[in-house]
Amino acid sequence: RGDVALSVAMTSISTLLAPFITPLLVLALAGSTLDVSAGDMFLSILQVVLLPVVGGLLLRTFAGRLVAGILPVLPLISVLGIVLVVTGVVGANADAVMTTGLLLGLAVIAHNTLGLALGYLVGLAGRLPETGRRALSVEVGMQNSGLAASLATAHFEPLAALPGALFSVWHNLSGAAVATFWARRPPATEGDREETPAP
């Protein structure tokens, strides 16, 4: 029950900026550069995210009846795909999971929880309506962990994909809990909201 258009716009922009911003963030936070081509990473993002989306839109437009027939099973296929990615990454890093799994799990939970909370608070500080706050919270707190694991596997060591894989498991649980909580509390309509005094 959030602002879907705002969420989709933010996801699209952040995905397109990722190959350019990610190396700069690593330089600023870790003090070193990434030994990976921004162009190669950008192409990977196109392959993993944008091409399937465009392909899905084209299929829906030109083969609507076919898509309508298989639409009920597509979410299950998506979940199975993520499960396979997570299983492969965790299996390839079993030793690392045994030694640092608890610490990494706590970091993943903290990252997700802070993202959900800070996204909502920024929306509140920016005086967004409740639907906008919810969209911002989900956008900041929930990340494309499948994309993260794919990029890490393609451009770094397999161990780099482990945080994304664990995040995928956790944020599906936390996201479902937050969605259920908000679904039971419809946001106020324009007429129901009190007028916010001008600054």
Walk me through this protein's architecture.
With 199 residues, the protein is mainly α. It has one domain (4-65, 77-183): Na+/H+ antiporter like fold (Up-down Bundle). It has helices at 4-30, 38-62, 64-70, 74-92, 94-125, 130-141, 145-155, 162-183. The chain is globular, with a radius of gyration of 19 Å. The protein starts with a helix and ends in a 16-residue tail after the last helix.
Provide the fold topology:
Layout: H1 4-30, H2 38-62, H3 64-70, H4 74-92, H5 94-125, H6 130-141, H7 145-155, H8 162-183
Largest sheet: none
Structural class from helices and strands?
mainly alpha
N- to C-terminal distance: 28 Å
Written as H for each helix and E for each strand, in order along the chain, the element string is: HHHHHHHH
Q: The CATH topology, please?
A: Na+/H+ antiporter like fold
Care to count the β-strands?
0
Oligomeric state as shown: single chain
- From the alpha-carbon coordinates, what is the Rg to the nearest angstrom? 19 Å
Helix content: over 70%
Q: Give the overall silhouette.
A: globular
Proportion of strand residues: under 5%
CATH architecture: Up-down Bundle
The CATH class is Mainly Alpha
Number of domains: 1
Briefly characterize the structure:
It contains eight helices and no strands. With 199 residues, the chain is an all-alpha fold.
What are the main properties of this structure?
199 residues; Na+/H+ antiporter like fold; 8 helices; 78% helix; 0% strand; globular
